[in-house]
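Example record

The entry below shows one chain as it appears in the dataset: sequence first, then structure tokens.
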Amino acid sequence: MTHHPWYFLPTEVRILHLTELATSALVEWGGAEQGPELFLEGENAVFRADLPGHGTCAVRVHRAAYHTVDHLRSQVEWCRALRRDEVVDTARIIDTLRGEPFVVRTHPEVPDERFVSVLSWEPGRSLLEEGASTLSTFELLGDLIGKVIVHGRRWEGRQEFVGIRWDADTFVGDEPLLGPFWETALLDDDDRHAMRRFRELVRHALMELGEGSDRFGIVHGDLLAQNLLLNDGRITLLDFDDCGHGWYLMEIATALMAASSRPDYVECRDALLAGYRRHLDIGDDELGLLPMMIALRTATYVGWVETHPFTSAAIHRGPAITRNGVRAVRRYLGGDGLPV
């Protein structure tokens, strides 16, 4: 994959360009009283700004060429439905003065046009923070996952919903969305062989699992700790960028991925499943695949590092992310993986 040279400019130069783009877009919301000031630059750039009538907001400059207009509108509709129906706390999407949930902007130095959206700035403690991911938090998270899935099954907009399809082809097909974790230059020959073997096992297992409506449907797609805020005993769900259709089991696997290296992993898993089972059952055939799903989700970051070399995570933690992915796969293949 070839990336535009802009992505490899000094960080401060790219931030300046994105800040100018965000400032230009904010005219559609009446302009900023303060900011925008960069809060986070990853695949997307998130700025903090004070807007008239709305207070502190998150201004999101979306990554290039990842979404269609239809996908973004589906994100907006589902996120608003979850909030309106009081299923889960989410950020409030703030429309422009003309009633649009996002705008398209270009900048002479930034490659490709960018979608820009504005959301309310939500209070809370990131689950990345030390001590935030307690057993009670995992139970809350399982409860959240179950409620979101049930809502997606019943939501009146589900037939028109457009999103990423997180199926076998997306993970281990010929053109995987997050990159071919089994073929990257970051692997030595032995690791590449192990990753290829794992890919074939996953492909077969996912085909056997199937895409029945009891296990595959509308999903958030990125239930990582950085997308979850703990506030007064409730979890706020952020970042719907990867929402689409996928396996419910992968939602559970993604939520448990960070806990998979903890000595109390089994307790974390059981707490999450206790919350989940308040709303949905899950069969032994699916649960038996949970260790594989966690290993798969971990392995996808090996491909992601190579296809996103300009991101801060790839630059500063790329080798560690790769080692972690290889270790998870080798543990699974060796029968020394997570307990079922």
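Notes for this example: The CA atoms of residues 46 and 60 lie 5 Å apart. The first strand starts at residue 34 and ends at 41.
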